[in-house]
Amino acid sequence: SHPQPTFLQRHHADDAAVRHEIVDGLRQSPAHIAPKFFYDELGSRLFSAITALPEYYPTRTEAAIFTSAAADIAMQVPPQAVLIDLGAGCCTKAARLFPVLRPAGYVAVDISVAFVREALSSLQQRHPSLPMLGLGLDFSTSLAWPDEATAWLQAQGLTDRPRLIFYPGSSIGNFTPEEALRLLRQAHAVCQLGGPGGGLLIGVDRLKPVDLLLAAYDDALGVTAAFNRNLLRHVNRLIGSDFAPRQWRHVAVFDEQASRIEMHLESTAAQSVRWPGGERHFANGERIHTENAYKWTPAGFAKLLQSAGFDPRAHWSDAQQWFSVFWARA
Ligand code: AVJ
Prior knowledge:
The protein has helices at 15-27, 41-50, 58-68, 70-76, 92-101, 114-126, 147-155, 177-192, 210-217, 223-239, 298-307, and strands at residues 6-9, 31-32, 82-86, 105-110, 132-136, 162-167, 195-205, 248-255, 260-267, 271-275, 278-282, 287-294, 311-317, 323-329. The chain is an alpha/beta fold.
């Protein structure tokens, strides 16, 4: 037989809502565009290239932690849980951990179900008896657990299983501490809907010397610059604007006060950008804020987890203490 995953798409922002969100950010001063718009097809490939750069340590450091801590993680997290993978994409990080986490069900959540469709279908062939759900959900807006997903869990007999939320890659760093708290509280509520023993397995990038941080977000080959500027091509397609990517420069700075890397696109000329129904003038040197990447201390992040209702039970790091993985019970 050929088992197939189930696919669900929840409140997919329609084209008008996406246009409204982007145009609203462009009209503000300073202008901003949300980092979720980096990831069109080319943007996803450029991010994948970033993870292979010598300067971009997070991905390989986290992978090494998952390898070295595997036995420990297996002892701490509940087996036979429903594994809920936030920002699953190609599903490889979670799939690599299947032997460690031994889930009874797998839910791959991404902003668009299209992003997980192929990967999940092929993963299902390799795990024919593991129930799999692809869930399209913009959890950066809200992680409310959809009724359809509850119904799916019920149909699979997974209602009473613990829920194990997996949020790797320091994607939590895109959120301000206030936004992160909100998301983690919602994650906690999702865990509470399942059986006892559930919780959160999360990867977090750590505060470290600024030169290392800046290099990771402004690499020698200019891949991160291309990734940042590609946002303008994507926005052009989404709202019909006429951004000229050549007229914009990649800028990465570290804000010590906020403990975050900021990425910006800086206008290299006085120019106007037009789109159907509007336009905006940018002075030479004016910037569009495109991303925050917060860098946490383990103590600070443990406090955040506690504020969200979690009980931090275990913490693993690498020898250089560059990256942290937390296990926190709901
Ligand atoms: C996918 C959000 C974790 O902030 O490090 C990489 C994205 N931006 N280089 C990060 C990113 C520039 C990445 N996250």
